[in-house]
Specification:
Layout (H helix, E strand, L loop, with lengths): L13 H5 L9 H26 L3 H10 L3 H15 L6 H22 L10 H19 L4 H14 L7 E4 L3 E4 L28 H14 L1 H4 L13 H8 L1 H27 L1
Antiparallel strand pairs: 1-2
Length: 274
């Protein structure tokens, strides 16, 4: 998903000039990967809707079966969003628009599903904040060498992956507990410190996902420099490429469509048994 275009002058460093966006061929492989991630998320959310909103057991079984894979395709989506931020005209503007859309979704889910099903801070909320932060920090980020920024952010992602569970460190190797007070507020959940009883049907806090997004931002400089392999510029799977190019629209519309279909099927089944 979606660096500002900077005026190239005497104050711009050589590295920053090298990373300045310019006309380039579309990297279809990124569209395909993003489309695949969206495809997986659509089905995962369908299983959630079928199982937990309509109480059909086969949906619960499928969701539990695919649950371990959910962070993988969601993480792929977030990482590619970071890469593509290098190819955006204005991440601040894009982030602000996405932030507005995300909170419309919060309001809609509150009224349509109720407090138990509301999306308080989902993947779109998180991505919108990341985009705006990267837009603000672009000049600073460009002073940091590509691989240094990538490795540091990747390491921070691993170190903070269990923050929502109250600890930081390398999972299974070394971890430290975080202050319990951070989890007793009702306003730090966007950062990754959910309070007792917190519920959100889609929850992607800034920690750890912010670091995965920024790792993608640094890795994305290779795209700006046209350093991606040649095969990535070719369209291999048009279906996924299409989904990737329209990822935001599909993500916004898929849940209402799935809910509507399930509601209709539920009414037909109930009527058939009456």
């Amino acid at each position: 998903m979606p660096v500002y275009f900077f005026r190239e002058d005497e104050t711009m460093s050589e590295a920053a000039a090298k990373d300045k966006p310019k006309e380039r061929a579309r990297i279809h492989f990124l569209d395909e990967l993003r489309g695949f991630a969206v495809f997986c998320m659509v089905f995962y959310h369908a299983f959630y809707t079928v199982g937990y909103l309509f109480n059909w057991q086969w949906g619960i079984w499928l969701m539990n079966f695919f649950m371990p894979a959910e962070p993988v395709f969601a993480g792929l989506f977030i990482f590619i969003s970071g890469i593509a931020s290098n190819l955006s005209h204005s991440n601040i503007e894009r982030g602000a628009k996405l932030f507005f859309i995300a909170y419309i979704i919060t309001v809609v889910t509150w009224f349509a599903i109720g407090e138990d099903g509301v999306i308080r801070f989902g993947i779109l909320h998180m991505l919108s904040v990341c985009m705006m932060l990267y837009g603000i920090l672009t000049k600073v980020c460009r002073l940091i060498p590509l691989w240094v920024g990538f490795v540091v952010n990747a390491a921070l992602f691993v170190l903070t992956i269990n923050v929502i569970w109250g600890s930081a460190g390398i999972p299974g190797v070394w971890q430290i507990g975080l202050p319990a007070e951070w989890y007793r507020t009702d306003f730090l959940y966007p950062l990754g410190f959910p309070y007792d009883g917190f519920m959100s049907s889609d929850y992607f806090p800034l920690l750890p996902w912010l670091f995965l997004f920024f790792a993608g931002c640094f890795f994305g400089r290779l795209a700006v420099r046209k350093k991606f392999p040649k095969f990535t510029y070719k369209n291999h799977i048009p279906f996924f490429s299409f989904m990737g190019r329209h990822a935001l629209l599909i993500y916004i519309l898929h849940q209402p469509v799935i809910f509507g279909i399930c509601k209709l099927l539920s009414m037909l089944v109930f009527k058939g048994r009456a």
